[in-house]
Amino acid sequence: MQITCFGASRCVTGSSFLIDNGRKYLVDCGLFQGGAQMERLNHSPWGFNPAEIEALFLTHTHIDHSGRIPRLVKDGFRGKIYASGPTAELAKILLLDSAHIQEMEAEWQGRKNKRKGEFVAEPLYRIEDAEACLPLFVPVREDEALRVEPDLSVTFHNAGHILGSSLLEILSGPPESPRRIVFTGDLGYKGHMILKPPAILTEADILFIESTYGNRNHKSLGESEEELLKAIRYSYQHGEKVLIPAFAVERTQELLFMIGKFFRQKLIPSMPVFLDSPLAIAATTIFRHMQQYYDAETRAVFDSGNDPFDFDQLVSTRSAEESMEINNHPGPAIVIAGNGMCSAGRIRHHLKHNLWRPGCSLVIAGFQAAGTLGRSLVEGARMVKILGERVIVRAKIFTIGGLSAHADQNGLFEWLGHFKNPGMRVYVIHGESNISDEFAGMVRRKFGFEVHVPSIGNRISDYGVIEHGAKPGEIETQAPVLGDYIAELAQKADALRNILAGAGAELPAHVLQRIEDEMASARAHLEEALQSAREKR
To answer: Which residue in 10, 169, 303, 376 is a FRET match for 180, CA 20 to 30 A apart?
Structure first.
């Protein structure tokens, strides 16, 4: 057997791994996210023929794990998509929503390109491509081995990350002496809200483990609740809105659970809570029908006669007109909207209308990939560009780490500590490159395992040999593209220097201040890029 990494290797998104034991299978098929450079990879050649893939094993429905499935089908895949029952249900709404976003963004970009006389690009896929995926889904039972072929079985275990998320335990080879390969997908942790903790596994020959938070630990849930209370009270006192970018699945339901508890315990005054996401509204309906997957605390809320995802102050806004009307609402309010990284969706409109307001709160409650608007705001950007307009940031930023659905460093260590095979080989994936390297070193020292951090295009045999296989086409051209970007930056810097040298004294004070702010931000980002390049040289 060989396993080739086609995503989520030295990066967080684009999860995709090709298993080849004579027949070909995929683990996940996710979108790359995090800025134009990364997102270009979604259009790259696959590195394999989609029509040759027998089946896809999907760990969960987050778009960085599932979002390229419609393109896979569009390009010839006709196999089965095996997933947990909740994942199959959530995929029906998430993939259609992703296709809608692809169409809308292509239409918007197309209008811009036409005005410039440039080529009008097609969307990555369309709604009909997403619809074609849905009959291919095959729900599988948790903890029951699925015999895919005589020498290959897959068992889906609870990963505790989001509703329906799964750890994959793959047995390859003769039943009497198989090789055991485990993929964590995204791993949750004990004590995470709403869901049961991840299943404990003790045996594996090869482990692919995520490392999103492999270099740090989360705040406690209690600390996160206090931080959210501070944000709500701060904006209430100033008569402004609390903006919470949130993914539709899991994060939104966690926020509803917490805010509902705040109201029931009278910890915050009454105010409207707008759930401004048709996708999150639909996902919450699915959550209500999946109580068998909840932890004891969440089931107890239902048993007491309360709905943990509903309360009197909640207003669900489905239409675009209802969403726009939120901006006309006077006084304090809480707005939960997608997406969670502020890179698309209705949250961008709310940010445009509110970030510049003193007294507004922006609550960042999850991971923000490099290159996203959310990451810029977390890193302290004082001016951002949203929907073509520059917006000054006067809102107060609250970062709530304890709501992450990913295990932190201690959680990853605790889960890893149950494995008994000292010869197990560990491949650290799904993390930014420096974080994966740091986490790999700590695992090596703490547990004594053989640990590697593969790159996209690496091919791994089931006996541990790593080969540098062919990468998707666009990945091979990153260095030249970056060179073009650097040359363009240098040209613009020279142009700005010439303007300041000639007419700088005549520029208004507010223009000079804006230039100073932008240059400070650009300098900080370039320092980080330079440091990363030096470390990897």
So the answer is: 10
DSSP states along 465-476: -EEE-PPPGGGG
**Does residue 500 or residue 474 have the better pLDDT?**
500
- Alpha carbon distance 459, 27 (integer Å): 14
Cβ neighbour number for residue 58 with a 10 Å cutoff: 29
Q: Residue 350 corresponds to which tokens in the numbers above?
A: 């709310």
Name residue, tokens 């599988």: 140
pLDDT in tens, 317-355: 999 999 999 999 999 999 999 888 898 889 999 999 999
Q: State the DSSP string of 493-516.
A: HHHHHHHHHHHGGGS-HHHHHHHH
Q: CA-CA-CA-CA torsion for 333, 338, 343, 345, nearest 10 degrees?
A: -100
For 36, phi then psi, to 5°, come to -60, -40
Q: Are 439 and 413 in contact (CB under 8 A)?
A: no
In 3-state terms, what secondary structure has residue 106?
helix
Q: How far apart, in Å, are the Cα atoms of 318 and each of 83, 201, 429?
A: 28, 42, 37
> What are the start-end ranges of the E strands in 144-251?
146-149, 152-158, 166-172, 179-183, 206-210, 241-245
Report phi then psi at 123, rounded to 5: -65, 155
Whole-prediction pTM value?
0.82
CB atoms within 10 A of CB 213: 23
User: What is the layout of strands, in order, in the sheet containing 206-210?
Assistant: 146-149, 152-158, 166-172, 179-183, 206-210, 425-429, 450-452
SS3 238: helix
